[in-house]
Amino acid sequence: MPELLEIRRGGQTLVGFPGLVDRGDHVELDVFDTPEAAQQLHRAGLRRLFALQLREPLKAAEKNLPGLQAAAMLYMPLGTAEELRRQVIDAALDLAFLGEPLPADAAAFAARLAEGRPRLQLLAAEMARLAATVLGEWAAANRKLVAFKAHAALYADVAAQLQALLPRRFMLEVPPTARGHLPRYLKAVQLRLDKFRADPARDAQRQAEMAPLLARLKRELAADAPDARLIELRWMLEELRVALFAQELRTPAPVSVKRIERAWSQWQA
């Protein structure tokens, strides 16, 4: 994969940044105006290229996805069982074959294929179990939230959080570094709801601390394509929710409003 590529198409010569494009039963090499546009599609194209070399191992992996049927029932508000199955398999392919740096020539591709093949079925089962756990906690949080519709501020905040935690393609759109923490974030939601009735004033105070940071994140994400540091800050805010509303679940590293504000200042500098 060269840094720049020249392609002739329809009598025209196109020069741009190369990337593989997923066409289902094959991939195509195409050129794009910016490296960001190329990278956005290239990972999916490269994933497809690996999948096309692994038809039989993928069939075996798909037959042994623990808890997928029950998870698919919980996933119904978001999408179909087939969409969930595809996400689980694609997440396993990413873990097995798409570590950085991505293979950029035939030799590197062959080496990555040989390295990842023995782990594929185990990773697929692991991703299926994670999806089932996440969806179970998400469904439990949604069921619990129904009883709090009369508390408009709480309900709106938690409903927005649940929606952000589980987009339709959560197994692929949530970064792998955050994906494994989703069950803890969802447990924290449930603990917050459990504590609310005993001390709604305390919850309101904690929510007021979070609100300016969440508003700022929303503005930053809407302004431009988010870079890696902004995504990191987004998940730091999720850890802050745990620290404020469900301290007993603990966070991997100390987190506070001041720490996040300091990290934001460093990012903008």
Detail the poorly predicted runs: none
Describe the strand arrangement of the main beta sheet, using strand numbers: 1-2-3
Percent of residues in beta strands: 5-15%
Helix content: 55-70%
Task: Give the SSE string.
Answer: EEEHHHHHHHHHHHHH
Give the overall silhouette. globular
> What is the count of DSSP helices, taking H or I runs of 4+ residues?
13
Could you explain how this protein is built, in words?
Strand 2 and strand 3 (about 25-30) form a beta hairpin. The mean pLDDT is about 95. It is built from 13 helices and three strands. The two termini are about 35 Å apart. The chain has a domain at about 1-50. It has a three-stranded antiparallel beta sheet with strand order 1-2-3. It is globular and about 70 Å long. It is mainly α and about 270 residues long.
What's the topology here?
Elements: E1 5-9, E2 12-22, E3 27-32, H1 35-52, H2 55-62, H3 68-75, H4 81-97, H5 106-116, H6 120-145, H7 152-165, H8 170-173, H9 176-179, H10 182-196, H11 200-223, H12 228-245, H13 257-268
Antiparallel strand pairs: 1-2, 2-3
Helix pairs in contact: 2-6, 3-4, 3-6, 4-5, 4-6, 6-7, 6-10, 10-12, 11-12, 12-13
